[in-house]
Amino acid sequence: MPGPTAPVPVAPATTSTLPGWLADAARIRERRGTTRHTRVVETGVVDFAGNDYLDLSRHPDVIAAAVAATERHGAGARASRVVTGTLDVHANLEAALRQLTGQESALAFSSGYTANLGVLSALSGPDTLIVLDAHMHASAIDGARASRSPVTTYPHRDLEALNSVLAQRTQRRAVVAVESVYSVLGDATDLVATAEVCRRHGAVLVVDEAHGIGVLGGGRGAVHAAGLHDDPDVIVTATLSKALGAMGGAVLGTAALRDHLLNSARSFLFDTGLAPAPAAAATAACAVVQAEPERVARLHDVAARLAAELGVEQSAGAVQSVPMPSAEIAYDISQRLRHSGVHVGCFRPPSVPDGVSRLRFTAHSDATESEVALAGRLLREALHETAAYAVRPATAGTVA
Ligand SMILES: Cc1ncc(COP(=O)(O)O)c(C=O)c1O
């Protein structure tokens, strides 16, 4: 499983009751510099931290669909999808996702997290090896942990290593999980080559398209762009909360896969159905992606300009990742930018798969030229002020 951080020595708890226990945990977080906060976001900020890549969360068609679905069905689905929680909005959503991605079948989940949890645990068992790229998202790691399978990882995007893991396995079956575009570094998987390695060893490939759908392949996703959408051994998981601007998740693949998940994915069966508003919103968003292809093109233009301003190589997707010399500098610069009205993501160990603290700037299609320029100028100023130039590490994506 991806790298646990080294244990941080901490004085033993004075008491075993909850207050002492929580205080110990808080001290460890403070010492590691990984304390997180939930701050209410001010309006009017420049947002390069969110995942609303196509700015669809505020699109009039998307909002209207959410309102209409709420008025028709109420605020919630009221039950699991297999009890009375399947509504016409779910059927419409699954049809829209099928159409967008070119897949035979779709099953909507309440989030991308539960979709990954569901598919990995439902395809598991003692005779199935789960193989994760080392940079997989926490939801896939948790899905693997929840499975009854042996689990292993291979170095990020290293297909030779994947080949030998699959060749040496003792289990009859194998499921390999990758992301089409990785969430922290923004780099992409070579899906054609990965699928070829999987095919050679009779392994199923699960592709998490959380950062690919709406972004790559004209919005239809990287799996479609690679021509793998009708390969029965390639499964797609999706979130509706990023480029589609809503909330929820889905698994896409064959009708037989949908049937299997519907009957055995615990995070589908024992979870209330996706609420009507986000289901209808995501359905409308799928239509907008296809009707307004210029949005996807604008996103890539913004990503190119943003990467140039930040002095990093442009990534495959919306995420532009800037390595920082230390967790403290990363946090300090993210706060300076925030106080100047620009929000960016700050990722520090243990949340970064490669152990390098990073600022993550996410492009979105409606970002203006002046917002992009402002982000670049503020970053350059902050780096100079923190003397980061002198101590920056030699990693991929250098700061110019
Ligand atoms: C790669 C990846 N997979 C899955 C998820 C989970 O999606 P959701 O937010 O819909 O639960 C995310 C969200 O952060 C993600 O980045």
Automatic annotation (TrEMBL):
The pathway this protein participates in, as annotated, is:
Cofactor biosynthesis; biotin biosynthesis
Report TM segments.
none
Needed cofactors, names only, are: pyridoxal 5'-phosphate
Q: Give start-end ranges for the coiled-coil region(s).
A: none
Where in the sequence is the signal peptide annotated? none
Q: What is its EC number?
A: 2.3.1.47
- Does Transferase show up as a keyword for this record? yes
Q: Which GO terms describe its molecular function?
A: 8-amino-7-oxononanoate synthase activity; pyridoxal phosphate binding
Aminotransferase class I/classII large domain mapped to chain residues = 44-371
Enzyme class, broadest EC rank: transferase
**Keywords carried by this UniProt record:** Biotin biosynthesis, Pyridoxal phosphate, Transferase
Read off the InterPro entries from this record: Aminotrans_II_pyridoxalP_BS (IPR001917), Aminotransferase_I/II_large (IPR004839), AON_synthase_class-II (IPR050087), PyrdxlP-dep_Trfase (IPR015424), PyrdxlP-dep_Trfase_major (IPR015421), PyrdxlP-dep_Trfase_small (IPR015422)
Give the reactions, separated by semicolons, that this protein catalyses.
6-carboxyhexanoyl-[ACP] + L-alanine + H(+) = (8S)-8-amino-7-oxononanoate + holo-[ACP] + CO2
What Pfam family does this protein match (any one)? Answer: Aminotran_1_2
Listed under GO biological process in this entry are:
biotin biosynthetic process
Subunit structure as annotated in this protein's UniProt entry: Homodimer.
What family is it from? Answer: Belongs to the class-II pyridoxal-phosphate-dependent aminotransferase family. BioF subfamily.
- In its UniProt entry, what is this protein called? 8-amino-7-oxononanoate synthase
What are the leading ranks of the lineage? Bacteria, Bacillati, Actinomycetota, Actinomycetes, Micrococcales
